[in-house]
Amino acid sequence: MKVGLYAASIVALAYAGIIVLNWEGLTNVVSGIFNWLGVQSSDLISFISSAGVFGASLSAGLLVSLFGLFSIEEPETKKKKFVKRKA
Hints:
This protein is mainly α. Helices cover 67% and strands 0% of the residues. It has a domain of 42 residues. The longest helix has 28 residues. It is built from three helices and no strands. Helix 2 packs across helix 3.
């Protein structure tokens, strides 16, 4: 998130004319990063698919831990108050 705010502030400064950006160079850097990420993700996907059960359990564990689907903490229990009525 901090990287996005930083990039947005740089673009805002360029739009205001305070700084000058080399848009062509920025485009080349960003496309290079995305190309590298694409290669790395395809390597990861091929590793997981070739690992069989280990790969399936690894990916399931990663998804559960990243998205916090389960919690170890005990949920708070609500204490119910019972009122004794007079007859």
